[in-house]
Amino acid sequence: MDSVDLNVLRSVLEWRRAGQRVVLYSVVQTWGTAPRAPGAMLALREDGVVIGSVSGGCVEDDLIARLHDGRIPADGPPVQLITYGVTREEAARFGLPCGGTLRLTEERVGDPAWVAELLSRCEAHEIVARSLDLATGEVVLQPANKTDVLSFDGSTLRAIYGPRWRLLLIGAGQLSRYVAEMARLLDFEVLICDPRTEFVYGWEEQHGRFVPGMPDDAVLTIQTDERTAIVALTHDPRLDDMALLTALDSRAFYVGALGSRVNSLKRRDNLAQLGLSQTAIERLHGPIGLHIGSHTPAEIALSLLAEIVAIKNGIELKQKKPLLEDV
């Protein structure tokens, strides 16, 4: 779940607690090419203020117009379906690509207790399924798995919500600053651990949150899960390997360490001597990143994040060249 959707739900909760009427729109189905994927949300307040997005802009304008021209009556059904882009003319009118069709649920938010619970569970790094009964407007929250996806059978919408993806950086050096800035643009929550106080100067709070302690403790402190990536960037094995020993036995979906092919092979040998299993060692990404001929810190950061995002999105990367060939 990205921060845009989290902000939509936070606003819904704030507005309802203030006594304002709120309509929540969710993309439930698309045909052809659509601007937003199923699950995208937009909240519309009674005065026309919106947060979130379900299209490129024209659909949002029409949703606001529906509020002002009375097409959303206060005593209407709790949930109804709205479809945009059925005809070529309508697709053109609402800025949808040729052949694109978008179906939304229009949901009047009553008691916001489910919103508060959903946000709380996401902040606790749980994955949650929200089932919405279109006939009654009833909402039920249940535990979900990372492989679950949004489903809609015409009468019940089951949407999946979860915590933001996280990136823990071991080391606060120059490369980490580039990685943190790019990761934030990609909507990762950025965490940094570096016990060397000399490297902390100049970090702004908005670029990431520092986790105190030694690297191995930091991996445990953040309660690493399947939505966490961990990258060791200090180039100091005393710090990097401490983190890796814990990270490679964790549930992190990506664990990597900065270094050349030769140094990466040496690191694997060191980890084996320290007692780490071969299965855990094989999870290590090193050298990190996709091969783009990178040399500068910014290019290395781009390469690294391209690899992390590909793995996050389930893209099977081509096998890297065996380390032994470069020794």
TrEMBL record:
XdhC Rossmann domain location: 167-308
Entry-linked InterPro entries: MoCofactor_Util/Proc, XdhC_CoxI, XdhC_Rossmann_dom
Boundaries of every XdhC- CoxI domain copy: 15-69
Protein name according to UniProt: Xanthine dehydrogenase subunit A
Organism: Pseudomonas frederiksbergensis
